[in-house]
Design a protein that fits this description.
The protein is α+β, with helices and mostly antiparallel strands and about 190 residues long. Helix content is about 65%, strand content about 15%. A hairpin with a 2-residue loop joins strand 4 and strand 5.
Length: about 190
Amino acid sequence: MKKDKEKEEIDEQEKDLNNPQEPESEDNSNEGAADEETQEATDPLEAANKQIAELNDKFLRKVAEFDNYRKRTLKEKADLILNGAEKTLTKILPVIDDIERAIENGNKTDDVETLREGMDLIYKKFMKILKGEGVEVIPTTGEDFNTDYHEAIAMVPGMGDENKGKVIDCVQTGYTLNGKVIRYAKVAVGQ
């Protein structure tokens, strides 16, 4: 009998070794793992929702910031257009003062030469101011006709081969502003 009991115990032990059963505590830990998986599944969702809310807030702030920037630059551009010529006009005002003085003195004197000198000085002063602002006269007489700077208003025949395609006369002076043509020179061209 003793041997039978011992044999049964050995068989049970072999059975346990061959087919180990999970203890109850491990079953509880599996349930806990399932709960953790559920929490982990909801945590990434909550984290993603939180990140979406943060990104949405950042996006709205950037949109508002860009809108403010756009409005500010439009206002600055409008101010620049309205008041952009202020600096130049301030420089021109002394020339107007000189013209007013010349007109006033012209009524007091009969000397035409003095008036001519005064007008010449005013013209030179005005051209110096314009040159300081980047305005330059387009050269014309004797120059080759160039459609980038000249506008032909007349073709003059019989000027000889040396004047063919050359500017013979300037009817209206042309100007450039910092290298860009702001008014073409109206010229007569030899044919």
